[in-house]
Amino acid sequence: MKLWSRTRSALRNLLWKNRAESELESELRAYVDLVADEKIANGTSRAEARRTALAEFGGMEQVKQTVRDQRAGTRFDIIARDIRYALRQLLRNPGFTVTVVATLALSIGANTAIFSIVNALAIKNLPYPHPERMGTVFERVTGPDPNDERRWIDGTEWEQLRDNVPSLISAITGGVSGGVNLEAGPHVQYTLGGRVSAHYFDVLGLHPALGRSFNEEEDLPGGPKAVVLSYNLWKTIFSADRNLIGQTIHLKREPYSVIGVLPQGAITPLNADLYTALQPSRSGEGTGTNYEVIVRLRDGANWQQADGELKRAWAARAKQIESRDPGTKVEYYLMPFQKGVTSVLRPRAYALMLASGFILLIACANLAGLTLVRMVRRTPEVATRLALGASRWQVQRQLWIENLLLAGIGGLAGVAVGFAALRALLSLLPKDYLPVDSVPLDLPVLAFTFVLSTLTSILFGMLPTLTVRKVDLRSSIASRALAGGAHVGLRQALIAGEVALTVVLLAGAGLLVRSLIHLETLPPGFNANGVMTAKASLDDARYRDPAAFRHLIENSVAAMQQIPGVKSAAVGLTLPFERALNGGVMLHDGPQSGKWVGADMVYATPGYFETLQMPLIAGRTFTAADGPNTQAVAVINLSFAHKFFPGMNPVGLTVDKGLLVVGVVSDVQLSSGMNRVAPLQSEETLYFPAAQMNAQSLSVHVWFQPSWIVRTAAPVDGLTELMQRALAGIDPALPFSGFYRMSDLEAETLATQRIQVALLGTMAGLALLLSAIGIFALVANMVAQRTREIGIRMALGSTIRQAMIQIAAVGLRASVVGLVTGLALSAAALRVMRSLLYGVGVYDATTIAVVVAMLLLIITAATMLPTLRIASIDPATTLRDE
Questions:
Q1: How sure is the predictor about 476, in pLDDT bands with cuts at 50, 70 and 90?
Q2: How confident is the model over 828-869, as pLDDT tens digits?
Q3: What's the rounded Cα separation, in Å, for the pair 171 and 151?
Q4: pLDDT digit string, tens, across residues 521-530
Q5: CA–CA separation, 641 and 660 (whole Å)
Q6: Widest CA span of the chain, in angstroms?
Q7: Residue 491: enclosing H or E segment and its boundaries?
Q8: Residue 199: what are its φ and ψ, rounded to 5°?
Q9: What is the dihedral of CA 226, 231, 237, 240, to 10 degrees?
Q10: Would you kindly state where each structural domain of the chain is located, as residue ranges?
Q11: N or C: which end of the chain has fewer CB atoms below 10 A?
Q12: How many CB atoms lie within 10 A of CB 194?
């Protein structure tokens, strides 16, 4: 009851303050009147009685304040007064306020945007029921070669996992979503299709809103053809027809029975429009590591139990690999699903988080310097308040409240900046780059921003408010000069710290820029100017027949060559800048004869090399005479020739089932595949005529879409429509899935590198700007503080140049110390970037030289510009003032 009574009293005093003051006034006057009446009754005159009563009372205002101090809720009232005073102080200094808020908004906004991604990848659970019970399987191979870690398995491993690990519900997919053609009425629509095994939706915890998911019979090779639709596809294409279950639709020109529709908003890792049964086996696709695993713990099982079952199930497989490759060790292990699917992205997100943390530290150092200068200028005000009776704690509390207000306003602005930065960042990322459907600014992110704002106010406000304890009342009130010389060393230390962190960010950004330049300036090996390409899905029942396939590509190429302005046309399975099909090749000639080797495999029509203008090094390219009933031929690239036929003329040699090498062409840059060294690299490539593709090899269209390529002498209006019309003239039911210029393909391949450069470059630029502002403010404040001293010294014979150098030396010394410290930090910190660099070393001398030169230029400008004010100092005026 006592607590409730005090709470009610506090609320009354705060919410109805005027009423409480009126009641207090009435009570005090009534008491004074009562004492005065007693004195009048004893014979004292009325005027004398009231005067004596007031004197004995001790002063009306003093008593009022004593009562106020004892009221419930007084502390809240004091804080409210401090907040109002702080707001008035900030409004009186708009330049300082805007500078601090803008700095906080940029630094906190950058941290908020990056933390949103980190939260989505590593903290926030993926949108599946009980995601902690989901996992994936990794294989780690260690040995003489660099460690290899992957989460792809073959058909044999899949069967062992499915049949011998009872603690898990297991499923696999055929990798990323592939394109399939869906017949919807008279039209054919290109859609994204995912191939999944039985129990895939069970592992994800998804239950179809209509119908069911795949069963074991449908998942067997040659089993019934079934399809599960996404909710959006069902609604938009089939008008949400609830009677669609059990009906037949046509995919790839084959009948598929619709067995289910996923619920609205359902999310899967493949994010496809429709799903078909994978029907895995040990043969065909199952001979390679083409299946991606996803598992869920069964009820009552635990991860230790499942891990033991997995190791026992694959023990024989591990021994087989180890005996085949002596010195290697194979280990299979389970990993939480979220950790597995984000394993590549999380280190990059953490690196960006570290960089944005550097930005925040630089901002705090800068703001601490600005606040310290402001505190020095407010020393007379603080001294006056102390002289009037305020305690040092009260003054410090007032300053902390000002800092918290600034941090709060900066934090709110930081949320807005972070939201805009996050939207801009997400717009830069390629589609499906992140394994999550959205990256919101949700409650955990806002809580992070709140904590960050609070910590920031502590960091940049700690040092200045502590100086209140050192304020000397007599000297501060009596002196007309600005104090603060004692704080120069502290400000120099802050500047040195800013510059050191800036060096690390600039060096990191410089290395990424150099790496991107290296990748972009690699010799492409062909001429990209004037080339337009288009892709179409040939994962189609009609084109599993080699004759139908040849008819399509030969006649469509001929039709495109008739387009006005087209110089040449061709079809190829893979283009430069794309990832090619990986395959095994048996060498029949050369020093490695009889050995299986890995190579990229590309089929092409006559004119492929000529259309791309790939230089012919030796022999010839394909002609119309290279058909299904003639000698099987191949063209190899220089990398293939140099690696497998060193010092030999490969023309006339044979590879893989009697393929006769008839030519050698230049290397082109491909997206890394089997031998990943860099995002773009030249890989050993084997080209063979499209006309010599057999029925078995046409299964490659499950994963790859061929490209139609045309070269024009000049821009052709409506070229994409003319290409689609030419294809429709051969097959009206075959749509192109997309049109691309070669620059589009290169940009897609290097998208990650460009994003890294943009993000780290922006942060480094922001750090450089903040450091320059800090140096400028330090020197400018020194000039302002020592104007009288400089004037006197100039009157005694010192020159302007000497005065400028002496003042600038304060900023230069701090900056040089920071520069040297930053170089030492970079030597240790940048080693973590090794995996992100291509064609440039971590300790690249050119990058370091450019960073040092840039910083020295900025430092010199930031230190010398404020000293120009010295030239306007008049020694005579200074002496008169003295």
A1: very low
A2: 888 878 878 888 888 888 999 999 999 999 888 888 888 777
A3: 13
A4: 999 999 999 9
A5: 13
A6: 141
A7: helix 488-520
A8: 75, 5
A9: 100
A10: 2-72, 77-122+345-483, 131-341, 541-733
A11: N
A12: 24
